[in-house]
Amino acid sequence: MSGSTVAMEIEARPEQLGILRSMTRSLGLGLGLAIDAAADLELVAHEIATALIPVAGPGASLRFEYRVEAIEIEVLISSHTAVPPVLNGLGWHIVRTLVTDFALGCGSYDPAGAGHPVTVGFSWPHPLG
């Protein structure tokens, strides 16, 4: 499955977190990650979504793209936020500990996109089965 991309988009609302968690864990397990690694990937996706949802622009969605490579998963999360997100606290410490190549981008306010375009990217360095 190397070179494949799996994408999902959810509304930027707290009620959608369960769907995100379930889909992310299923993806990890389907790719052959160990149970604890799949749970960690689920945790990272949840923490990022939890930080972006409260500042999401009106009607915004969160798009998660998981690109599968031979020895890692590259993840790109994108949305629009009413204000630039602030990344701090224990949850972000956990995220930064579990992933590699973490990057956050936040553009200028875009009225057409209903907010600041935000991207969060990282690599998941766990070997795939």
TrEMBL record:
Keyword tags: ATP-binding, Nucleotide-binding
Descriptive protein name: ATP-binding protein
Entry keyword ATP-binding: yes
Lineage top rank: taxon: Bacteria
GO molecular function, one term: ATP binding
Record bears the keyword ATP-binding: yes
